[in-house]
Amino acid sequence: MTVLDLRAEIARWPVGSAAVAVLGVDGVLDRAATGADGQVYPWASVTKILTALTVLDACADGTVELDSPAGPVGSTVRHLLGHASGLPFDGPEPAAAPGSRRIYSNTGYEVLADHLADAAGGPFRDELTGRVLDRLGMTGTVLDGSPARDGAGPLEDLVVLAWELLAPRVLGPEIVGPATTLVFPGLSGVLPGFGRQVHNDWGLGCEIRADKSPHWTSPDNSPRTFGHFGQSGSFVWVDPDARLACIGLCDTPFGPWAAQAWPELSTAVLRAFS
User: pTM higher than 0.90 for the full model?
Assistant: First the structure.
């Protein structure tokens, strides 16, 4: 095991402020921040994990069904959750047949939220709050806009979410499991920021690392690693083999700096805590 100075790691990032944490199954192992205590950061597409868990919880109680039609003709809730509906990144016109390609789609998650809101008879934000945020105690997290990308919250709340993903206790494995288990295997597609992947693996909400290269996690992360990152400079990964999770938030958008810094941090975390 090597010694890791998390604060020194993020101090080298070309950002104004940042906050990171490492978790094990029993809780936080280390954390560091260069911004103010409790600072709220935009989560961007990490918001999709919250939306996916909300929809999966609604599937569990029968409010919606995974295999019910939603989105383009031939698409279902399952397709939308797994970025396999054929909808493009942004826009209403399908770019492929459902189940034929992995097309990462903000629109798909907005359609999902509308589908649940229609079924529940109330705003999606209320569903998110009641089904996920309140139950996990994520009191500092808000959704002000798109359920695909407009969540924001402090590091403390992302810690809570990452811990639930690593060791489900509140929502439980029946909700977290589908979000992190491969669906529609073998689909190719573009991983935003990292190019085309022959097997662009996803669960019903989380990206699955598998053998993707290049990638925003470490080459030392296990293939079963899952998570999400956002264009705001946010990320969360969970490695079930290492029994670790790592999260990060910052005030600077994703770019080449993050594509280099995040894998380096992930490698250091695995070496220090595995």
Answer: yes
